[in-house]
Amino acid sequence: MEQQAWRSAELADLPALLALEQQAFQGDRLTRRQLRWLIQKGHAQLDLLQIKKDACWQLAGYVLLLFHRGTSLARLYSLAVAPDWQGQGLGQLLLARAETLALAEGCAMVRLEVRQDNLVALKLYQQQGYRRFAQYADYYEDHSPAWRLQKRLRKAPEGVQRHVPYYQQTLPFTCGPAALLMAMGAQQAETRLDQRHELQLWREATSIFMTSGHGGCGPRGLALAAWRRGFAVSLWVNQEGPLFTKGVRSPMKKEVLEKVHQDFSEQLAEQGIEEQRIAISLQDMQQALEAGWIPLILMSSWRMSRSKSPHWVVVTALDAQFVYIHDPEIDEEDQKSCLDTQQVPITHLEFERMACFGQEKLRACVLVGPVRAA
């Protein structure tokens, strides 16, 4: 084959990329605005394959990967081969490039979506070790479904996994209620996963004040909200007293936080809910998953989105290398979708770093168990 070269896309490549989109795809094409964002600001890698023919370099194809900060997951968002170069094995070459880029970014897994009627692409992916693990309904512009495929780049034994329905938080401050909805939905299929229920939980579990904006939910409020709905709960918090007070300067707000904490503590005592005054370990979490519990974990969002705020996620699985989470927050501005925030793999070491918030090194977990016997 002619001389080949790889390079990262630049803004000057936009006309050629848009032309390739028109040639390679019948629909679901990337727009100029999307491509510009991905090249300039997106947490992504867009690599071009150029081939020299008749002393001229031609754009033969591209591969686009999206990355999820703080995780070991890469998503193959798009792969295109120019019509003049199809049938020459470039699809396999682009796929290998995607895996090389993912490994260079520290990722251990690549996921992608493909049309169920695209038999050529399905054959390519399956030949290269990609396996179906889910279906996504109404994925494409014409409402056709997609197969979800994934490949482990670094092998690890499979561990315990729970089926947890996914729910996206509808407001910036409702990650805790959204995570709790997912956990309750895993334990009881009849649980309503909607905004009305999400806001009901937020009103019950909020600590009223945070560093700014609307109040967030602490572990004690979430535990009580789950208990009131009939679920077993186990609470793990490595600190006594009111939480999230270091970022609050107003004496009045601190006083309110202290009163809310006292009220939550009294309610927990009345219901006989004990606090484990230690941080939950990965071994404890694995045992909880095996016993049928769903862990809600308080994270620092800094390593994922560069924002300094507490954030709740749901642990869905754990194996010898990774902790898998459902993250209720979707950064749509960065071309993310709910496909990027479900079953996200995080290495054990990175998870231990992320599951710790603030200068006080707060670690909190709410285990949501099955519905209690009447």
UniProtKB/TrEMBL annotation:
The N-acetyltransferase domain, residue ranges: 4-154
Gene3D superfamilies: 3.40.630.30
PANTHER family tied to this protein: ACETYLTRANSFERASE
Protein species of origin: Marinospirillum alkalitolerans
Keyword set, alphabetical order: Acyltransferase, Transferase
Protein name: Peptidase C39 family protein
Keyword Transferase: yes
Keyword Zinc in record: no
Organism phylogeny: Bacteria, Pseudomonadati, Pseudomonadota, Gammaproteobacteria, Oceanospirillales
Membrane-spanning ranges: none
